[in-house]
Amino acid sequence: MFFDNASTTKIDKTIMTDFVGLNDEYFYNPGGLYFDGRKVSSFIEKCRESIKENIGANSDDALIFTGSATEANNMALMGCVKKNTRKILVSMGEHPSVYNVALELKNRGYNVEFIPLDKDGAVSPKTFEKYMESDVDFVSIMYTSNETGAVNDIASLVEIAKDINPKVIFHCDAVQGVGKFDINVEDLGVDMLTMSAHKIHGMKGVGALYVKKNIQIKPIIYGGGQEKGLRSGTENTLGIYSLSRALEIAKTNLKSNYDYVLNLKNTLIGRLEDSGLNYVIHSKDNSSPYILSVSFIGCRAETILNMLSDRGVMVSNGSACSSKKSGNRILESMGCKKEEIESNIRISFSRENTLEEVEKMASILVDVVTEYIKKVR
Ligand code: PLP
Fold first, then answer.
1. Separation CA 181–CA 216 (nearest Å)
2. Could you tell me the distance, in angstroms and rounded to a whole number, from the CA of residue 167 to the centre of ligand 1?
């Protein structure tokens, strides 16, 4: 039973079926000047337009396809900072593909500050106001935490930022938000926004960066000049299609998926409440229905993960990308105790999980934790 959907999701079956036909028609290089090549190029443009429409972008805004959201995040930061960038603000909750880039910029001499999280895992507008000063030229704050599911009030944070410095560039990593929340870049007011196909039942290795018109961005990958010179490398046509189609499918069922997944999460929480176990749920009142971050006090997360895996349940500790590192800067920033950090696991849902599966998983989880606690006593 797969409950690690924040790390990746299975490609939608209808998209897999589409691939077969599309591969015959659109395998040509979109850079080819012959008719079939140009046809691929216009197919990619159609996908781009569909994504732009689904995130509320204007026709003259840009959407750059990349080889991952990690690359899109690198591009957002590295491609926007200039010699004269005065200050960069990044939240402590960011995915490593933003956080580690910010650290690298700091190492290169940029003035980078990290905004702490409040105890529910979000950047509170009050805290943000303290950090946001008129010399801040760049801000990056994520939409939803991949670790706790905490949701940031991006529209309010952008408003604060632009009030203080109207020229500030605001980037949002919305990888765990796109296709799950009704994301509209105009309403949010962001200048750049990152998304990833494989988190929403598209293909791995496909990301995109929305860039509002008039935002100056430089490439981080040089070569043949694809994507208007901003991201060289032959376009991943079927991958791009998978992102645009996955988003269309997700948007069509956004509300029903949200309610469906929320019911799965609440069912699990209900089973935990009935269990009498000693646990803490993080970002409880402010979290995406797709992610449950929970600590079972007195347990070691790795052991619980292994015990669950032996019984056919796949979950993760924190983010899969950082699971090999000790400590957890995100829970630490939220003020969690060591015992909560050591025992933290992330259970993440998708529309493909069933209620029956959740009931089964909940009962295995309660058994495993009870068994563990008995053993260490
Ligand atoms: N940003 C967030 C919030 C994520 O959760 C992830 C993946 O876990 C990424 C960025 C990186 O996405 P990708 O796997 O497409 O590089």
1. 28
2. 27
- Say how many Å lie between the CA of residue 73 and the centre of ligand 1: 9
70 Cβ closer than 6 Å to some ligand 1 atom: yes
Give residue 327's pLDDT. 63
Kindly state if the Cβ of 69 falls inside 6 Å of ligand 1.
yes
pLDDT of residue 376: 84
- The atom of ligand 1 lying closest to the CA of 7 is 8
Task: Give the 3-state secondary structure percentages of the chain, helix then strand then coil, rounded to 5.
Answer: 45, 15, 40
Helical axes 237-252 vs 254-275, angle rounded to 10°: 70
The tokens for 204 are 């791995």
Percent of the chain clearing pLDDT 70 (strictly above): 97
Does residue 203 have its Cβ closer than 6 Å to ligand 1?
A: no
Query: Is residue 321 among the annotated active site residues?
Result: yes
3-state secondary structure 205-242: CCEEEEECCCCCCCCCCCCCCCHHHCCCCCCCHHHHHH
Q: How confident is the model at residue 318 (pLDDT cuts 50, 70, 90)?
A: low
Name which of 218, 154, 177 is nearest 69 in CA terms.
177
Q: What is the pLDDT of residues 57-72, one digit of tens each?
A: 999 999 999 999 999 9
Q: Give the whole-angstrom CA distance, residue 182 versus residue 148.
A: 19
**Residue to mutate, 5, 146, 194, 204, ligand 1, most ligand atoms under 8 Å from C-beta:** 146
Q: Indicate if ligand 1 lies below 6 Å from the C-beta of 323.
A: no
- pLDDT surpassing 60 at residue 158: yes
Q: CB atoms < 10 A from the CB of 7, how many? A: 18
- 351 pocket-lining for ligand 1 (C-beta < 6 Å): no
